[in-house]
Amino acid sequence: MLTRTHEKMWTFGKPFMLKGVDRELPAGSYRVATDEELIEGLSFPVYRRVATIIFVPGRNRASLEMLSIDPDDLQAAQERDVAPGV
Length: 86
Description:
86 residues; mainly beta
């Protein structure tokens, strides 16, 4: 199967939480990678998302952790971050 990866930086102005992550993440910029695989057998190229990973500081801040997340949860956290009065 042919796979591709898209990377994007997400910036949060205040600490935030994500489902499946057992701690609050600090404000800052985070690299997010999305892996997709080609669905074969169609007459045109179609990809489906198979994983979304966020890179976060480790608990001791000297390391980096890769955490699998739901992209909808990431989008909701971003919306909460920019919402006025929250």
